[in-house]
Design a protein that fits this description.
Elements (H helix, E strand, L loop, with lengths): L1 H15 L3 E6 L6 E4 L1 H21 L6 E10 L2 E8 L6 H5 L16 H11 L3 E7 L3 E9 L23 E4 L7
The structure holds adenosine-5'-triphosphate and magnesium ion.
Magnesium ion binds next to α2.
Length: 177
């Protein structure tokens, strides 16, 4: 899912030729969580889209970098999206997941509110770290899926009757790019 999103983003960045680089830091080639794959893609895409917009708003249109990292943290997978955009001041950072808080031109301010709801629905955590002038990172943590059961059927998109989150997710793509 993460890799799908990043590949899509790469195509877009290449097409736009805006001088924005995408870097990956994945220690493992696969990371599994129990989640709704489409919803997770929405989360990843929102972070990527915001990062690209943030980088583009900078006065010095010199481009920038979005670094996407995946790491194991205790029982969770932690995914972070760090950009070299203008950053967000602490007051705004506090309210960033509330709806209709937008400083992007034409932005509705709903993206991160939706992100927050999706992550909550997966019993995960999400937060933002930012320093004005340096950039912003969004971090999301989701419980790792342990290989107790057979993972072979895990990529099936059919949702199980018992759980609302029925899709297993493969998050990373090894050392590509
Ligand atoms: N990576 C970032 N760097 C700087 N500011 C950010 C970043 N991500 C979000 N923001 C700020 O947080 C606000 C809220 O983001 P959010 O995704 O919720 O809404 P939006 O992008 O403005 O609109 P929408 O996502 O609904 O199109 C943005 O308008 C922007 O001011
Ligand atoms: Mg957005």
């Amino acid at each position: 899912m993460l890799e799908d999103t990043l590949t899509l983003l790469e195509h877009r960045l290449t097409a736009e030729n805006a001088g924005i680089k995408l870097e990956r830091s994945f220690p493992k080639s696969e990371a599994w969580v129990l989640a709704d794959g489409d919803k997770l893609k929405q989360v990843f895409w929102n972070f990527c889209e915001n990062a690209v917009r943030a980088i583009k708003t900078q006065a010095t249109t010199k481009g920038g970098t979005l670094t996407v990292a995946l790491a194991e943290r205790g029982l969770d997978w932690e995914m972070s999206f760090a950009d070299t955009g203008p950053g967000i001041n602490p007051q705004q950072t506090e309210k960033i997941f509330e709806p209709f808080q937008s400083n992007f031109e034409g932005g509705t301010g709903l993206g991160l509110a939706i992100v927050y709801q999706i992550v909550q629905a997966h019993e995960g955590k999400v937060w933002a770290r930012s320093a004005v002038g340096k950039g912003t990172s969004f971090v999301v943590r989701l419980r790792r899926m342990v290989y107790a059961q057979d993972a072979a059927g895990g990529t099936s998109a059919s949702s199980s009757a018992s759980a609302s989150a029925g899709t297993a997710l493969a998050a990373a793509g090894g050392t590509r790019g």
